[in-house]
Amino acid sequence: MAQCKPSQNNGSLWKHGLCWLLLLGPLFFLSYGQVNQFTATRDDVESIVFGWEHAIPFMPWTIVPYWSIDLLYGLSFFICTSKQELTRHGCRLLAASLIACIGFLFFPLRFSFIRPETQGIFGWLFHQLEQFDLPYNQAPSLHIILAWLLWLRFRQHLGREARFLCGGWFLLIAASVLTTWQHHFIDVISGFIVAVAISYAIPIKGQWHWKRPSPHTLRLAAKYATASALFFLAGGLIPYGSILLWPATALLIVSLGYVGLGTSIFQKNDAGHLSLSARLLLWPYLIGARISRKWFSRHIPAVSPILDGISLGGFPGKSSPPSAVLDLTAEFHRKVPSTFRWSAYPLMDLTPPTLQDIDAILCKLSQLRLTNGTVLVCCALGLSRSATVVAAWLLAKNHVSSVPQAIALIKHHRPQIVLTPAHIDVLEKYKETRCQTSA
After folding, report:
1. Distance between CA atoms of 283 and 265, rounded to whole angstroms?
2. 379 in catalytic set
3. pTM for this model (two decimals)
4. In this predicted model, what pLDDT tens digit does every residue of 365-408 receive, in sequence order?
5. Exactly one of 80, 101, 378, 379 is catalytic; which is it?
6. Which domains does the chain have, with CATH numbers?
7. What is the separation, in whole angstroms, between the first and last Cα of the chain?
8. pLDDT in tens, 62-112
9. 140 cis-preceded (ω within 30 degrees of 0)
10. In b/e form, how buried is each residue of 393-426, taking b as 16+ CB within 10 angstroms?
């Protein structure tokens, strides 16, 4: 079995972990217990139960994984390997308790099944639970929220085999809220939604960025916001339309990206991976982007060699790309094997890069070329973002002496490229401010 990754914790990190535990432990018991006691005095508490839930069996032994989350909660503060990871993990758990308690207060629900009498060690564990937990803190299930947040931390520090076993145990914890007759299904669904939202809003790595939008990006934001509003409206008008709130939310977040949050909404790292939370929350948009890429790339070559080992193309699928990839997409998640050298610099779709973006991207390209013979510069289709960067590279290396020559050279090998006046304007500025005149 693979072992945990070597820990880099020092004494100071352990002290910070202990401080977080001493803060959140009492806060959890105080807030959770007080809200539960308060809700028990209300006369407006109802239950939401699906008919099929009556077929869920009561499985007393699952009280063991149910209780195990308390131990895992405490351990999670001592597996973090950096102060940033520990701090953001602590903030996630703090947000989980506060948001769950707010939900219990504003949307009180009651668990409605009568739990059978249980004997032995399992009965003792149920008795201990009943000493503290009344059946009123239901939606969103704090147990589900914590299970998700804790699993994200443990999986980060485990090898493949151990990660598989850990995931299975956390699935058992999630299922135990139903098989111990502690929660109804609505609590599980609402808990999972809140959990993903928290892990997305408080990323362990990276941070949120904002920059002033241009008129062009504001127009794009308005289009996505309009589409989001239509999904929200449809979700409230048609039967079972609540599922449409998912694409509505995803499109709204993309709109915020164009308003100023930029590529940080996708939480994509240098290796080309989007965070799991971003992939779940933005899944409807990401699926749409993938379908669009497949449709529009039907008659476009996957890769077009340009010059001196530099190729231009669309985002690689599972098929083998060249030995190195410079990925300029923000919206696609890398799926090719880790044996390929991959460097990502996310850019928003349909927007030209800035001069600073080009400087940073060409620096990455130079690093890739030092150790790899062939480099694929890619975006979604290999038509705009990547074409702009390759044109800038041609100018920087004096392979051409003007922007029109750069565009003509690229079009000779990939005639489908689409460079708007905004892209061309950036290239002209790059040529003027960054490139030396060739002899």
Report:
1. 13
2. yes
3. 0.91
4. 999 988 877 899 999 999 999 999 999 999 999 999 999 999 99
5. 379
6. 14-33+60-109+132-201 (no CATH), 215-290 (no CATH), 302-438 (3.90.190.10)
7. 61
8. 999 999 999 999 999 999 999 999 999 999 999 999 999 999 988 888 888
9. yes
10. bbbbeebbeebeebbebbeeebeebebeeebbeb
